[in-house]
Amino acid sequence: MLGIKFTKFIEGLADGSPFEKLLKLFLELITITSGDVSEALNWLSELDKQYKLTDDSYGVGDFIDDLKKNNYLKEDENKQVIVITAKTEQSIRRQSLEEIFGRLKKSKPGNHRTPFSGSGDELTSERREFHFGDSLEQIALTDSIKKAQVNHGIDEFRLTEKDLEVEERDFKALTSTVLMIDVSHSMILYGEDRITPAKKVAMALSELITQKYPKDTLDLIAFGDDAWPIEIKDIPFLQVGPYHTNTVAGLDLATDILRRRKTNNKQIFMITDGKPTCLKNGIRYYKNSFGLDRKIVNKTLDCAAKCRRLGITITTFMIARDPYLQQFVREFTKTNNGRAFYSSLSGLGEYIFEDYIRNRRRKVK
Fold it and tell me: Taking the mean position of all CA atoms in its chain, how far away is CA 10?
């Protein structure tokens, strides 16, 4: 008899080994400390002291030894400082992806399904009859044989064209995305850590594209007084600096990158919490942190209009909810014909992932 068999619950059995439990916390601390291993381990020791994370059988010292043994930590070339390895970086990205997708599956909004089906490599659960022109790869052999047995019986089995079932596939458009991350001082202003959620989203999105959409491209940009490209491996080490917000520099760099891409779908995701406050004229900086400076705003709106003419959609993810900033974002979004989300720190990942998956399924005419 089929059914569910219940066994006695043993507390802690499903939580993994002591090493695995501490590893999750350590990866979180590495993200917060921007890759500073010493600081992360000091925090871990303090948390252990306060919350008794370990016991006499397995301590933080044992955990550090296991990190080295399992190639999560290594000594640098001078053998004076312990640093994280590529394995740790990938583990952080994977954990960020699982964390964000775990919330994504539970959220009600954002179930955006494309109305288009046809050529592509993303299978759906739908089946239809074979039509002239369908490729052999689309034929669902198991379903076709089953249908032939129903239509003709087992004794006189034969497979005809009318028995063939074809797997529907979602239309898939290749997408080039540039993710811009604001690293100005306001991202840690007033004691609120906004840079850590931004880094988590960047790591999770890069892991998603690498694993599930390898033909898509993702470029990463950090912007403060200036803008500069960063690689995926640099994300855990990204830090906020004493910068203003030069949105124009970030958009100019993102536009240059996307111009070189051959894909039809091109988009910019911009994570920021503040207004643009900086421009660069030659070697000089024009800065104004007080209110919305029209000179800076007009240059920023010009960039939005330029992207619109090039067919590049800008999606702005505002972590702040100040009314006067929202007014600027509405004007910016209208100029680009893009989208804007006013997100809390906890909801940032869901917004970006839903929007990315929806946009990459968009049919480009």
Answer: 35
**pLDDT (tens digit per residue) in 302-345:** 999 999 999 999 988 887 667 778 888 889 999 999 988 876 66
Give the CA-trace dihedral at 170, 208, 272, 318, to 10 degrees: 50
Q: What's the farthest any 2 CA atoms get from each other in the chain?
A: 86
- Does a structural domain hold residue 38? yes
Residues in a beta bridge with 315: 269, 339
Residue predicted with more confidence, 13 or 91: 91
Share of the chain above pLDDT 70, in %: 82
Q: Nearest to residue 270, comparing CAs of 214, 216, 338, 189?
A: 338
The distance in angstroms from the start CA to the end CA of the chain is: 55
Residues 189, 273: one domain?
A: yes
pLDDT at position 169, please? 64
The two beta strands, 284-287 and 278-281, are antiparallel
Same domain, 53 and 36: yes
Whether the model clears a pTM of 0.85, i.e. scores above it, the answer is: no
Q: Is residue 288 part of a domain?
A: yes
pLDDT tens for each residue of 41-50? 999 999 999 9
pLDDT of residue 365: 40
What domain range is 45 assigned to? 14-84
Same domain? 164 vs 180? no
